[in-house]
Structure to design on (1515 residues):
């Protein structure tokens, strides 16, 4: 809040009073004057900021520091012992009222001279306003020091009581009383004449009276006061600032029905009102509190209310509240012991002082012990609730309010002191109701009283909370012995400057017990403990259930979480310890400990209360997206979410153990160890149920057990799962081929009996159940195990079956047809994809194959999301054969003849120019095609429809090749050297061939002479690798002539002639090692001498090097190259050593030739031994070599593989349980197999119950749940994210959905958007949509997938997010580098883009992969990776695994390296200016020196994890 401040000379300035930050240190140091040094002594600003309980800064309009003050809970240690000041000061000065609870000491004040007085006054006012319990601000100084004018004006000296004491005689004590700046409010009974003043406040805060249509309701309320109903107002300087109405007429019975009041004696008299009332009930409650459910039960619900700062909803709701809280029930047997706050209003400027009302209203009801208030769950937090305790709701309650309770004892003063041996009996009684950890606490007490150390040889210290002689709480700490481990494994430096805290100032919290009535004293207990032990930080560990590590006694955990901040775990470097030797980090860092969540309590956090969020946020689905969403909310240091609920079929994923987890592939988002280090179970209520219905009107969901769970925000993140396949029940007496199957629509949902030996694996719970059944019933037999599906999970499952002991000869891998694959006429989906972007099913473990989503109601808009981006030819005609694509293979925007699309185009779409009459670039093999002008930004692969035989297409207007793509040209790169006609590999499919480079909009299409061209035969391979001798199941056979592009045959017609005299491609000599010269845009096409082999022209999307084939011919030269203007920037490398004819930098946007000097050594003409040609995709993997190695491993294990099969019948149509036989339809004869185990990994899609609940609640569902760019559905209270969702069609971006991106990043962005509704430090969301809201958000983090494949091969695939569907641009890759061979188990492949940045990582190894390290390579420039290309040129890299295990890489693998890199870029951007062109910092001596200094600081700061690097101090 900005206020005006007036200087001593009358100058007026705008300023803000806020908490100080460490970033203010430099500005504060500049304000230190000689007078401040004389008064406060030597000043270490950072030390003061780290240790101060409260530090306040006055900042100007431009953020400059105008003044600063620091306050501690003890005087300067050089003057008075901090441990005994509370007895010293009252002894020598007249300060009887000063206690540790209500007093702070000024340790530093600095200011701009002209604003000194005004600044100090504003600081003191802010301190008193924000700290309700504070009454005194004190300053102790030497008598020889004179205070400056600003301090003299605000501080008055304390009267001295003793003179003879030498120490006190040298001291002066000054104090500022609250009453001088912020006097406590005067509270009196309300009168009718106060009505207008109160109404003025009401009108500002709420519309409750207007909604009730009773304008004089407050007058009636004031007039109706009696012994059970009271109203009061509070005044400041005779001005009414607040109003409160209380009543003793409370329906306790209804409160007991809706809230868990057993710890408060049911709010009735005649029973104990605390934890000692019922030991049995408390055992159950505390047992639950040791679990994640803290102070809430299984279902968060609330009770209605009328609260000052919030709006009432309807008059009927207000009347219901009155019935609940005001209408006393005569049937209630016990006498109520409670009164209720009905209404409370306060002006904003006096909200922090509203606690002054609490003592007054308790005086109105001297015989009642409890005060309650109900608050709407969506109401923002307000200061009156600071001393109240939230009561958890009863399961099944749907009331939209929370109940808060305060006991009369909570107003009594407390004292924290060291525990005495005489306290043992009281402490034993205090913890008698605590079941877990009770013995450990008493054992530690005995060690303390006997002055012994614990088993870890740590000294223990115990403190008790004393309330007028009664022990109501205890806290036991010990020295933190694993400080280096905590610092290396957790981001504690996000909250403290580690170097400013001594080792002995860190402590571990062992035990914490506090009675519920005094929970608001928790912060004071921690603050006093830190002072009395001279500590600055306390750490609390939370171990996962079942590990047996948690032996501490904690009651209640939520009290700790209210005071502490959760600390994020750090990503760890995987060190090659044997190779590092003495240079490895310390053993205390590298040795693993049991995982735990960590909470931190520091001195500066003890007076920084959190903002409480009571909104009921219900998350459905424990997917990676959902877990990431919860992680962000739980790690907000200044927010406390009280009503987080997770609904998932099996609850949270397991946070310990890995049994059964390796059946499925992994996204490496959350490992079991990661889950154990997160505070999710401590902060989130877990409901292990399935949502079956959503009631939008009543705002609750119904779960499978019938329970109702209310929500204010419902977040749907269920993802997609494998569904039970539905057999087609085709008559087995006749042959049924797959194409017959595909002519029908989606099969119905399976509703029959699920066989007991059929397992559909969707999560770890399913895998654990399957593994238990396998070991008990299957492994020792000889029955067949059938694995059904076609994703990566089928291969990891086969490997798991082999590992648990199933014989390979008993395993049948039944692979379903891949996407867009018709049985005979279409290429496999893996061939349709570019080799940059693999099948989505190979990249994402939660993205369905649309052809498999057979159990869900099919919607045409979402049928191709599992595939890499491809751009269909908009003018392709539908095939004339009967083998039409399946419905699942056709996207919403199905093409008509000569129709481009019904949607608006993306950047990558071909726009603006009318298509030329004929251009066969998009539909033909690429060999004779010659590019003219490169597209400036990216590459576009234009693929033919899968079922189409493109031999003689009659359409004369079949292509739009000459229209430029703004994104450029990206293709799949077949080897330029091999003769496609003789290559049996399916890699040579036409869909992997790149299109022509697209000319600029003004260029004419090249002339193509088709007279001498023999048509290629293009067919899709069948189940086995294609034999080129068979035209029906082989990849395209291409016989290009010497000087013309190939003809494209259609079943009946010849290709159209293209006549364009204005431009022709350049001539290229295939025997030459240098690229052809390009004289002008009108160059003629290359002449190809060998009619029996395809011309060796490299795809424009890959830049590799070869000695045998000429480079591609394009009119571009990358900026970082010394190649001539007419040389090709993109070449392929086949096999081993080769030379580089170009670089992979981005070409000039205008397509012009550049002769700029290179930024790296000229590699032209020199071989790169490990750079490879582009390889085509496999059927099921993005890398054909990986697929071949996996298939060979299964062959050696005698695993039988059946391709392109669809489930036809179970048990020949008889009762399916148990399953003994299955039948599949294939391309030819049906396949019949005996079956002892059936593992289903097919039909991945939206769960039927999830679909049914979404659809029946009238949420828009278009194949997926439809959302906007801000995650909102058509209901403002219901949000969605992850693969479950798709963007609205209004965005015209069907090729993008959340399934295309990293699910963890999507969840983080979802949480960031939701936080704008609750976090007061963030800007509130704008009601008016911005232009950016009309765009689909694009995320940056890579898609990751890995697992253990047959042959015990460890697999990792990291790739850039890619669009799905016909419009998605594919990112052109300029270079592929690989070492090793897949079959040898040492394969490592990197794809670099044109900017030489790593965009794809593929690893296949027999050895365990250092996944955490390898993922750091993504997005790094090759120069940052040890000058990768230069080292390749120098033949210094034989094995990329060994290369990235070298010491220098460890700095890049450090978790803070990315932040360091961003800071460097930002710093140099400020120096150079935003519009300056990039420059090489290493070539500028000044920049190089500064860069070296920054690197040295980075290494020194992270010395504990990077000891292998020498630091300047070492040198």
């Amino acid at each position: 809040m900005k206020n005006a401040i007036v200087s001593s000379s009358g100058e007026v300035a705008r300023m803000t009073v806020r908490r100080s930050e460490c970033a203010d240190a430099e500005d504060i140091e500049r304000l230190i004057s000689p007078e401040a040094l004389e008064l406060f002594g030597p000043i270490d600003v950072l030390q003061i900021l780290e240790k101060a309980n409260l530090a306040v800064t006055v900042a100007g309009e431009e953020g400059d520091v105008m003044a600063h003050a620091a306050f501690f809970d003890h005087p300067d240690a050089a003057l008075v012992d901090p441990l005994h000041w509370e007895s010293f000061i009252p002894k020598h000065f007249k300060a009887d009222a000063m206690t540790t609870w209500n007093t702070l000491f000024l340790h530093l004040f600095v200011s701009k001279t002209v604003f000194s007085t005004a600044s100090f006054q504003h600081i003191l006012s802010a301190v008193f306003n924000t700290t309700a319990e504070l009454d005194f601000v004190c300053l102790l100084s030497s008598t020889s020091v004179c205070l400056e004018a600003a301090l003299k004006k605000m501080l008055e000296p304390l009267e001295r009581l003793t003179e003879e004491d030498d120490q006190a005689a040298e001291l002066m004590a000054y104090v500022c009383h609250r009453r001088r700046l912020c006097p406590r409010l005067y509270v009196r009974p309300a009168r009718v004449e106060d009505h207008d003043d109160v109404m003025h406040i009401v009108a500002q805060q709420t519309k409750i009276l207007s909604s009730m249509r009773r304008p004089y309701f407050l007058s009636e309320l004031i007039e109706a006061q009696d012994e059970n109903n009271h109203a009061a107002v509070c005044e400041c300087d005779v001005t009414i600032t607040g109003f409160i109405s209380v009543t003793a007429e409370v329906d306790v019975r209804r409160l007991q029905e809706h809230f868990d009041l057993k710890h408060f004696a049911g709010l009735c008299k005649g029973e104990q009102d605390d934890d000692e009332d019922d030991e049995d009930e408390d055992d159950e409650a505390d047992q639950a509190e040791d679990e994640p459910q803290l102070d809430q039960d299984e279902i968060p619900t609330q009770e209605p209310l009328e609260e000052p700062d919030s709006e009432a909803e309807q008059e009927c709701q207000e009347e219901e509240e009155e019935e609940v809280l005001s209408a006393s029930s005569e049937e209630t047997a016990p006498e109520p012991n409670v009164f209720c706050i009905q209404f409370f209003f306060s002006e904003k400027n006096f909200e922090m002082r509203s606690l002054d009302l609490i003592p007054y209203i308790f005086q109105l009801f001297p015989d009642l012990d409890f005060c309650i208030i109900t608050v709407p769950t969506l109401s923002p937090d307000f200061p009156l609730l600071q001393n109240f305790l939230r009561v958890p709701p009863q399961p099944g309650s749907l009331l939209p309010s929370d109940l808060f309770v305060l006991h009369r004892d909570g107003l009594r003063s407390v004292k924290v002191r060291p525990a005495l041996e005489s306290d043992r009996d009281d402490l034993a009684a205090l913890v008698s109701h605590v079941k877990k950890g009770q013995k450990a606490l008493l054992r530690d007490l005995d060690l303390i009283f006997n002055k012994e150390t614990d088993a870890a040889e740590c000294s223990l210290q115990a403190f008790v909370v004393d309330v007028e002689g009664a022990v109501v709480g205890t806290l036991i700490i010990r020295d933190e012995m694993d400080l280096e481990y905590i610092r290396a494994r957790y981001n504690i430096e996000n909250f403290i400057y580690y170097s400013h805290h001594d080792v002995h100032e860190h402590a571990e919290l062992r035990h914490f017990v506090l009675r519920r009535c005094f929970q608001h004293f928790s912060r004071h207990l921690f603050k006093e403990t830190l002072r009395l032990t001279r500590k600055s930080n306390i750490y609390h560990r939370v171990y996962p259930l079942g590990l047996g590590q948690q032996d501490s006694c904690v009651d209640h955990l939520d009290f700790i979480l209210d005071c502490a901040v959760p600390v994020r775990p750090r990503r760890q470097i995987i060190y090659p310890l044997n190779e590092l030797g003495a240079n490895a980090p310390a053993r205390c860092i590298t040795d693993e400990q049991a995982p735990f969540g960590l909470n931190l309590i520091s001195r500066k956090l003890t007076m920084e209360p959190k903002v409480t969020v009571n909104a009921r946020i219900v998350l459905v689905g424990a997917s990676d997206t959902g877990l990431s969403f919860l992680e962000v909310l739980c790690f907000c240091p200044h927010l406390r979410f009280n009503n987080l609920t997770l609904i998932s079929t099996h609850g949270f994923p397991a946070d310990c153990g890995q049994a059964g987890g390796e059946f499925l592939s992994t996204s490496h988002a959350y490992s079991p160890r990661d889950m154990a280090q997160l505070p999710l179970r401590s902060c989130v209520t877990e409901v292990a149920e399935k949502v079956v219905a959503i009631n939008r009107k009543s705002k609750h969901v119904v779960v499978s057990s019938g329970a109702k769970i209310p929500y204010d925000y419902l977040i749907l993140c269920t993802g997609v799962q494998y569904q039970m396949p539905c057999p087609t029940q085709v008559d087995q007496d006749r042959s049924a081929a797959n194409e017959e199957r595909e002519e029908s629509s989606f099969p119905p949902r399976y509703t029959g009996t699920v066989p007991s030996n059929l397992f559909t694996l969707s999560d770890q719970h399913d895998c654990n159940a399957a593994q238990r059944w396998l070991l008990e019933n299957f492994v020792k037999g000889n029955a067949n195990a059938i694995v059904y599906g076609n994703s990566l999970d089928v291969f990891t499952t086969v490997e798991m079956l082999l590992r648990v002991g199933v014989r390979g000869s008993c395993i049948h891998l039944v692979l379903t047809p891949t996407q867009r694959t018709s049985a005979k006429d279409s290429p496999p989906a893996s061939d349709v994809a570019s080799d940059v972007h693999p099948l989505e099913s190979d990249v994402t473990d939660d993205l369905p194959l649309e052809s498999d989503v057979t159990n869900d109601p099919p919607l045409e808009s979402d049928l191709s999301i599992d595939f890499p981006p491809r751009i269909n030819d908009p003018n392709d005609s539908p095939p004339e054969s009967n083998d039409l694509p399946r419905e699942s293979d056709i996207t919403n925007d199905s093409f008509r003849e000569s129709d481009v699309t019904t949607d608006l185009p993306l950047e990558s779409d071909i726009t603006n120019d009318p298509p030329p009459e004929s251009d066969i670039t998009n539909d033909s093999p690429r060999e004779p095609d010659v590019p003219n002008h490169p597209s400036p930004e990216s590459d576009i692969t234009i693929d033919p429809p899968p079922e189409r035989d493109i031999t003689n297409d009659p359409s004369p207007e079949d292509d739009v090749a000459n229209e430029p793509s703004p994104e450029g040209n990206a293709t799949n790169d077949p080897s330029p050297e091999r003769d496609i006609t003789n290559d049996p590999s399916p890699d040579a499919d036409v869909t992997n061939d790149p299109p022509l480079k697209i000319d600029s909009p003004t260029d004419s299409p090249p002339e193509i002479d088709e007279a001498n061209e023999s048509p290629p035969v293009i067919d899709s391979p069948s189940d086995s690798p294609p034999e080129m001798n068979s035209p029906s199941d082989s990849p395209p056979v291409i016989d290009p002539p010497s000087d013309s592009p190939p003809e494209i045959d259609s079943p009946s017609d010849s290709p159209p002639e293209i006549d364009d005299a204005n431009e022709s491609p350049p001539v290229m000599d295939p025997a030459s090692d240098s690229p052809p010269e390009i004289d002008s845009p009108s160059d003629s096409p290359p002449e190809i001498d060998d009619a029996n082999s395809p011309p060796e022209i490299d795809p424009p999307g890959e830049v590799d090097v070869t000695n045998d084939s000429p480079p591609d011919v394009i009119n571009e030269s990358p900026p970082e190259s010394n190649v001539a203007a007419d040389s090709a920037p993109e070449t392929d490398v086949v096999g081993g050593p080769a030379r580089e004819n170009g670089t992979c930098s981005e070409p000039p946007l205008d397509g012009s030739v550049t002769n700029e000097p290179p930024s790296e050594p000229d590699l032209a003409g020199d071989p790169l031994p490990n750079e490879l040609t582009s390889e085509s995709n496999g059927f099921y993997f993005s890398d054909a070599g990986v697929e071949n190695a996996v298939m060979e491993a299964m062959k050696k294990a005698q695993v039988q593989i059946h391709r392109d099969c669809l489930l036809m019948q179970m048990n020949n149509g008889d009762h399916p349980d148990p399953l003994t036989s299955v039948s599949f339809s294939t391309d030819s004869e049906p396949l019949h197999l005996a079956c002892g185990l059936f593992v289903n990994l097919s039909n991945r899609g939206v769960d039927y119950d999830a679909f049914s609940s979404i659809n029946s609640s009238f949420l828009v569902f278009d194949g997926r749940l439809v959302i906007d760019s801000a995650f909102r559905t058509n209901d403002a209270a219901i949000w969605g994210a992850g693969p479950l969702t798709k963007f609205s069609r209004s965005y015209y971006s069907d090729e993008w959905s959340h399934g295309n991106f990293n699910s963890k990043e999507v969840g983080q962005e979802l949480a960031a958007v939701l936080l704008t509704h609750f976090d007061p430090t963030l800007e509130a969301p704008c009601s008016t949509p911005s232009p950016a809201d009309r765009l689909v958000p694009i995320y940056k983090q890579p898609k990751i997938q890995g697992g253990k494949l047959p042959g015990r091969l460890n697999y990792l695939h990291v790739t850039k997010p890619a669009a799905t569907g016909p419009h998605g641009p594919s990112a052109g890759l300029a270079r592929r580098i690989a070492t090793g061979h897949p079959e040898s188990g040492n394969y490592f492949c990197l794809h670099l883009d044109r900017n030489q940045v790593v965009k794809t990582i593929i690893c296949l190894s027999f050895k365990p992969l250092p996944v955490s390290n390898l993922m750091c390579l993504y997005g790094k420039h090759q120069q940052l990776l040890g000058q990768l290309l230069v080292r390749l040129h120098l033949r210094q890299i034989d094995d990329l695994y060994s290369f990235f295990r070298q010491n220098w890489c460890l700095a890049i693998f450090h978790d803070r390296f990315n932040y360091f890199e961003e800071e460097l870029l930002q710093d140099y951007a400020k120096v150079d200016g935003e519009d300056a062109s990039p420059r090489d910092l290493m070539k500028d001596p000044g920049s190089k020196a500064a860069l070296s200094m920054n690197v040295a600081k980075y290494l020194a700061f992270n010395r504990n994890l990077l000891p292998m690097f020498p630091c300047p101090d070492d040198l």
Notes: Residues 376 and 401 are 4 Å apart (CA to CA). Residues 276-319, 324-332, 820-1167, 1366-1371 have pLDDT under 50 and may be disordered.
